[in-house]
Amino acid sequence: MAAALTYCFARAAPRVTLRPMSSALTVTVREHVAEVVLSTGSKGNALGPRLWEELPAVFGELDRDAATRAIVLRAEGPHFTYGLDLPATMAEFGSLFQGGLADARTQLHDLIGRLQGAVSSIAHCRKPVVAAVQGLCLGGGVDIISACDVRVCSQDARFSIREVRVAMVADIGTLQRISRLVGEGHARELALTGRDIDADRAARIGLVNDVHPTPEAACDAARAIAREIAANPPLVVQGVKTVMNERVRAADEAGLRFVAAWNAAFLPSADLGEALAAFMEKRAPKFEGK
Length: 290
Fold this sequence. Notes:
The chain is an alpha/beta fold. The chain has a single domain, classed as Alpha-Beta Complex (2-enoyl-CoA Hydratase, Chain A, domain 1). It has ten helices and ten strands. The chain has helices at residues 49-64, 86-93, 102-124, 140-146, 174-182, 184-193, 199-205, 215-230, 234-266, 270-281; strands at 15-18, 25-30, 33-38, 70-75, 129-133, 136-138, 150-154, 158-160, 197-198, 210-212. The protein has a seven-stranded mixed beta sheet, sandwiched between helices. Strands 6-8-9 form a three-stranded mixed beta sheet. It is globular, with a radius of gyration of 19 Å. Residues 1-21 have low confidence and may be disordered.
């Protein structure tokens, strides 16, 4: 595990808790099922820079942990996530979004690659991951759940590929994975409009497997699926996921490389500046295609 994370690890105990020094992720392992809890400390569980460091560390460790056979990914609070924490991200990386010469664009390209790797660590983890979603799941939240193997949600869940509405091409996994889940027509509609969809539509188009009446019921359902997976031969389960991943690995990697290069070239724009200003000023943006 990376130095940024510390563990309380006791194999003899019925429950093993992995406590990161930050509050972004907490992991509990019990009876071969790990439960990864997203709690960033930001309003709406917004995804800040620290999370992108913790995701690959946590899922890499769980991939190597022989006691873990399946994983539940859920979030604390009323919402799964509002998506990217724009103020925190701009505070740390804002200069990279302002254009510049080759050095700034190279750094932006590298940053996008790191974010992609963080989300892909979920897909690449050999242990199947079951996501339980409640409330809003926007932007980067859709990237994260698209990398999971199974998704369930509560009736109050709402989903949006929100990036287009803030002058961004989604670049950390949604555009590579979402078509396989919902089909090309639905994927293009959602990515091009940025509209919200409710839980019932998410189930109809295949974004989630099932809808449950409450967040607690959705979490219970995710745990039940994970326990059922964990009861099967662990190496065979890992083999199934690895073989199914191999069918799409090359296409996903090529798509991620392409969008990283695209956004390194084209993400800095007047429209992006307008979107960020409108967000901070709580008004509708006026885009001019510049």
